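Methods, example record. To illustrate the input and output format used throughout this study, we show the complete record for Oxetanocin A resistance protein. The sequence lines were provided to the predictor; the line carrying C-alpha cells was produced by it.
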Amino acid sequence: MVDKQPFYRESLRADCSSCAGLCCTALAFSASIDFAYDKAAGKPCKNLQGDFRCGIHGELLRSGFKGCVAFECYGAGQQVTQQTFGGKDWISHPEIAQMMFSTLPVMIELHEMLWYLMEAREMPCPEPLGQELQRQFTEIKRLSGLAADDLIAVDTTALRNTIRPLLAQAGMQMQKASKKSKASKDFRGKELMGAELKGANLVNADFTGAYLIAANCRMANFSKANFLGADLRDADISGADLTDSLFLTQQQVNAAIGDSRTKLPEHINRPSHWAKGQRNF
Ligand code: SF4
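The corresponding predicted structure is encoded as:
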C-alpha cells in the first residue's frame, strides 16, 4: 500500500520539539566554517539547554554555527526519541544515553533513503523498477521501526549501494519523460566550485554527486535537473527555477543562498534565513 505522501513526508522533517536534542549531542563536529568548535560524539553541545533547546537559536549564523542552520535529520531525531525509545530522554534516563546516541546516525541514514525513495516512487518508472523502489521503501520503513539493538546492526552502506542505482535509473526515466528538452548535460561528480552558471539553461542536467559550492546559479533554469547527493553549500540560487528539479533535499536548500524569487519544489520549505537577507551563509 502506498503511504499518503504529504502526511508521510512530514514525518521525514526535523521536529526538534519532539526530540531530546540528539543531533546536538550524539554527533561529532569539527571546528570549521560550519561549527565554531570541536565537539566530540556523545557530548552535549555547550549551547544546548536543559530543555533540549538551542540557547543561541536566533544567532546561529552570527555565532559561527551555520552548519546547524543547514542540518536536517529527516525526522530521525523524533523517531529515535518517540518511537525507538518510547518518549524517554538521555538526561532522565542516563542508562539509555549511549544506545540513543548510537541509534541516531543509523536512523538519519534510513530516513534520508526514505526521503529519496518517496520521490522516486512518484516517477514514471517501468516495471520491475517501480516495484523494486516500492519494495525498498517498505523494507527501509520496516527497519526504521526496529528496536535499538537491531537498528545499530543495520548495514546502511549495503542499503545505500542497493538504492543508489535504483534512484539513478528513476531519475533517468523522469528526465526521459520530460518534454522540456532532449539535451542533458552530464555534471556527475564534477567540481563546479565557484562556477559561473548565472542564467544558464540547465534543463535535465545531471548534478549527481557534483560540487556546486559557492557556484553562481542566479536565475538558472534547473527544470528536471538531478541533484542527488550534490553539494550546494553557498551556491547562489537566487531567482533560479528548481520547481521540478529531482532529488533536491531540504538540507541542500538550507545550505544554499536564495531569495524570494527562487522557485522550489512543493515539498521543500523556503529557509527562513533567506527572508532575513542573510546572504553570507
Ligand atoms: S549550536 Fe545549537 S543547534 Fe547547534 S549543536 Fe549546539 S545546541 Fe544544537
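Annotations derived from this record:
Residues 97-121 form the longest helix (25 residues).
The radius of gyration is 19 Å.
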